[in-house]
Amino acid sequence: MADRRSGLTGPPEHRRTTPARAVVIAELLHLESSNLLELYRKRETFIANVISGDSRLVSVPPPSSQLDTRDKLWRLQTALLQCRGLMERAIAKEDEELSTEMGEYKTLRKMVSDRLLYLVNTIGEVIKAMDGPALVTPSFNDSLEPDNLTVFEMKLWVFRVFIEVDYWAKTAETVLQALPKERVKPTRLRSTRSSHR
Amino acid sequence: MPPWPDRRRCAVWLSCCFLSVVHARALNELSAPQQVTLTGSPRTQQITVSWRGSHASTFDVIILRPELNQTVFYVTGLSANESGGRHEWKWTSAEPLECASLSVQIRSREGAATSEWSAAAVLPGNDVPAKAEFQFYPQDRVVAAGSSSTFCCVVAQGLRLGSIRYGSALQNATRLSRRSYGVTVTGQQPPPSGNWGTNVVCQDLQKSQLAGAVVFVGYPPLLSDFQCETEDLVSATCRWKKARDTRLYGKRRTRFTLNDRECAERQAVEVESCASQVWEGNWTLEAVNPLGRLVLSDGAEMEHRVRPPPPSEPSVEVDAWNATLRWSWEHAAYRSLALVCQVELGSGGNRTKRAFTGAGLRSARLRKLHPDEDYRVRVRCGAQRNFWKWGNWSRPLSFKTHMDVPDAPDVWMRIDHDNTGDVVWKPLTARQSHGELTSYQVTLRSPQDTAGRTESLGPRASALPLRPARTDGATRITATVVAENAAGASRPATVVIPLRGPDQTVVADNRADATERGFALVWPERADADADADCGYVLEWRDALCRRDCSVEWLRLAAGSTEATVASGHFQPGVKYNISLFSCSSEPLRRWHGYARELAPSGTVPHLSVSQQDSDAVLTWGVTPEAGRRGYVVGYNVYLANDSGLALLANLSGEGSRKYTVKALSKGTYKFTVKAYTLAGEDVGATASVTLQLFADWLILEILTSLGATALFLAIVTFLCYRKRKWVKGAFYPDIPQPKLNDDWSRTQAPLDVRPSPHHLVRVVEKPEMDSFKEVLVVIPEEDEEEEGEEEDGVTAACRRPTSLRRHGPMADERPDGPREPYSSDSSDSSVDSGQTDVTYTGIQTSGSSLLSPADGGRLPSQAPADGGGYRPQRRAAPPGEDRGDDGRRASPGGGGYKAQNAWRLDSPGEEEARPAPSPGSPGGVAEEEEEEEERPAPPSLGSPASVASTQFLLPDGEAEEPGREKRPLSVSAAGWLTNLLSSAKP
Questions:
Q1: Out of A45, A49, A152, closest to residue B213 by CB
Q2: Does A95 touch chain B if contact means CB atoms closer than 8 Å?
């Protein structure tokens, strides 16, 4: 589905370059994570009163203008990989506690998780194309997901995870769109994506 | 009193005192409970209190919130369990134990005696300073729907409570301690859909922090239809249904155990079946969730609970009309088990089920299928003995039967009046063609050409025109039609066609009434039925009004049939159909006609005409055309059209009633509407109008009748007047006393000096043709003079004089100065001019001056004669001296002159009738004014006969007929006539 929506199928001459594909995936991820966050806010209305602090669940080196493109991508890939891990845990935690029936929320939740992994792999391909290490090893900070959470605490934690995913999806969109033009050829994807919205 | 009772009383008193002292000492000896300990269970919100050191049997317990010194609970006379010297008592708190610290004190009680309170034992809550963070209790609570829960919020140190919401509902909080607040929610219900739990959230006043909990509201498990069965004849599968959704999922879902073995589940989803490796005969299912536990049981012999698995590997063998379905069984036990299997066969939109039985059944023969048709089939089975349930359906199979030769076509004929027509046949349906048709072969044979000629037509053909070239002038031909497809040719279908037209044979024509099912027809059995015993009949129907290339439908009937119902989807309402019964040799036997459904006529009755016959209106109309009838015309309704609509005049039954007479109409215009009607209603109606003239004979008759009646009336009046003439005369014409003549009237009388009244002018008209008695004086009103003088030349001379008189009349006398011409001279002239006129004084009406009252003063015309004298014929003869010297001017002061006429009343009938109707400009109008002026002073007295006579004679009949003069009323003439009549009747 992701391929179909991003226009990755079709004749080879119409296929986009890897960086361009990464941009499209990041845009889709950002859109879907925003939708997921919106759905969650509708379901858990008390979230509106939650003040999201500065503490982040994803830990990566701070951004710096000194970083070159490859380092930026590596940092982005690391963060997205952590996001993917958080999403998986959030899904498992929710299913264990609540185990609700399938619906739009669960479908979107799974889609964001899959899209995260796909973006991580795509960015890895871009890094690999730059002669760098293709994949990073995810390292989770277990303290970010304390044991014995009450359901209320779990809901707050899941919300933080979704916030984090949305933040990094937006960051990925920005970083990938800002890649040097010679590496990311302009495509007509934006208009294509818009038609899918 | 004896002394000893006092001593006894004293002893009793002393005993009481002693006992009370002893009792007081005993009370003082009740010791307070020691070593009071508290143990709290946050999940159950229960406190266990234990203590030691008292021999009392009952205790008082008080529970306080020490921070606010609030009494939470107090009980007295409590009996506590004792074990090993320790008493124990349990108490459940409404609020979670974490909400606020609780202190418990106990004292011993023996009746009314109590010990001191024990030292307070405190169960610290989470609102102690050591736990300064924001907290909320209880967490993750599961409660039954409809129950109540109490929540508490422990505000962080240094913050103030803002709000506590249950879901989105703001709650009223109760302070439990310095930092703790509680809310109680009653009647909790699960959310309408899903169940992620209801959030209960507490927030501080600055909304900088929040804490909360999630509460799950649901139901305890409730199941039904717990049954165990076997598919493989070895193991058991137990199933049940959820009678109610617990609304609890995930960790709080219901868990099941079957015979104490946990049922396997996937992804934390509730299961609805549980398997057992062996058939145990008895099963116990236990369902548990946080709100309750349910136990169900079942037991049965395995042979009674066989539910076969779906047949596997289904396959089918097919031919044109049959198919064989085969399948297999996974479990060897089914190869010998007596089974009943159900095969569902679907074709198009239809599904049929066929049952098959047998031991180890593994195939089924499907008969009576249709060639070249698609089918879909599946099978399921059950145990033939001790049938329990059908097993699941096998995988469905689709197949198509083979082709076969087509059915023989149903052939008939369509013959027009000119002996042309078609051989027609009903197109074969898919079920009849048994495969795609390739052609129709049509062979026409005549007695002269027995070999015949064959024509090949396309598969869509359904008729072959019988052109002369094909019939060769034969009067009877035989047509044979054969349908062909890839599998072969059909049996031939034959029809005998008599080319002499369908109407050449006269048969009875009956009316056929239709029902909802069609035309129900009955006919007698043929006497020569044996001749056609094996070929039956054909019922044919067609549009009765169709003349050429008409569509025809037919129905084949078995030999010996005597009734049939003709139904067709092509029947149109309002269309007349001819239905014919033919023998198999195409001989017409019987004919009917009828409407499948009648409608109201679409047209109107033609040629509607209406004519007058005396005072009647006769309506006639024609027969409604066949095309517009749309039903059998039952009759006609005749309406009279008026402003308010149609008024029904007559309902004529029968189609032949096409004439109607509307009798006794008066003169006028009439519109009639005639509507033909069938059983379904009437048509819009034709309208015709007629204007009835008055019947001439009647008019003449009426005139004659009225004339006769008038004549009769007059004759009766005349007769009555004649018979009563004395009375009439006495009433209207009393005798006038003869004047007494003192002088000698024998000598010749001098000419009468007729001087006009100063106010009224009297025109003296001489009518030579009349006798002297008919000469009359006409009173001419002054104002009329000028007009008459201008209009009537014949009287100009007579009018001029009065004009001058008026000019010098009393009105002119009012002029202050100027010479005045005396009236006398003119009057005298006038008298001289009319000296030859013989005037009868009885015919002269008294002038108005004599009637006026003296109050009119100098303007009274009566004074004028005093000056100028006038006509005084009735005056008594004065002494000769006076009379000779008087030229008429020396009248008596009272006006002198003629007075007998003063007695005349203006209201006498004769006067009233003689008064002309006033009209502008007419002389009569002015005259009426004059008369009105006279009316006022008129004394009420019976009229003078002289007045009547004078009135009549002053208005002679001859003048009324003069051209240019106003016509006198007829009544005047009638009055004159009556007067003359009475006069002539005078004795």
A1: A152
A2: yes
